[in-house]
Design goal:
Mean pLDDT: 81
CATH class: Mainly Alpha
Number of domains: 1
CATH superfamily: CDP-alcohol phosphotransferase transmembrane (TM) domain
Oligomer: single chain
Low-confidence stretches: 1-15
Largest sheet: none
């Protein structure tokens, strides 16, 4: 019996990685990864500058653009669903990692604990999402995840700005520190929200799999 393809929703992503994956939204996602590589090289070389800040803002701001274009023009693909969250995590997590400095005059405010919490949360939630979606559960991003992403981007932007010598505003360092720790706190909170959500989904599926 042949499946009725016409009955599938228009925005259902293709399960193939064919030529349909070579579309404009996915090209934007790949370009974000390219910008991230340039950004990391600049930070690693010690050339903080305004360029690093601008590159991060552009890479982070285009996060919503590729997804919106894919949904708007019916170009949602499996490759896009894989690359988009991967790019988000590389950009934010990678920048946190490269901003980890021993301190001193060029301290970014980012500590090892912050990096561990940010990257650890992303790894755990990604693993949890993969497990649940493999078993047919919808574990897409919710408000807490999106709010976490926005706050992390704002905190990283403030951290990059604090490394620019010309930005010697007296309020910048205290504001940066508050934003960084607030972003870490929201990251932990968001992770707990996803854990509770995952437990509920598992508990809902348990009675269906139980033997009478």
């Amino acid at each position: 019996m042949t499946a009725d393809i016409s009955s599938e929703p228009a925005n259902t992503p293709s399960i193939r990685l064919g030529r349909e994956s070579l579309n404009f939204p996915n090209l934007i996602t790949v370009s974000r990864l390219g910008l991230a590589a340039i950004l990391f090289a600049l930070i690693d070389s010690g050339r903080w500058g305004i360029t690093s800040t601008i590159l991060f803002v552009v890479a982070a701001a285009t996060d919503a653009l590729d997804g919106w274009l894919a949904r708007r023009y019916g170009q949602v693909t499996t490759l896009g669903r894989i690359l988009d969250p991967f790019a988000d995590k590389i950009i934010v997590g990678g920048t946190f990692l490269f901003l980890l400095t021993p301190g001193g005059e060029q301290s970014s405010g980012v500590t090892a604990w912050m990096v561990i919490i940010v990257i650890g949360r992303e790894m755990f939630v990604s693993s949890l999402r993969g497990f649940l979606e493999q078993h047919g559960h919808d574990f897409s991003a919710n408000f807490s995840g999106k709010f976490k992403m926005v706050l992390q981007c704002v905190a990283v932007t403030a951290s990059l700005m604090s490394l620019v010598p010309s930005f010697d505003w007296p309020w910048l360092i205290p504001t940066r520190n508050v934003l960084l720790w607030l972003a870490v706190a929201v990251t932990v909170w968001s992770g707990m929200v996803y854990i509770v959500r995952g437990i509920r989904l598992l508990n809902q599926a348990a009675p269906e799999n139980s033997v009478n």
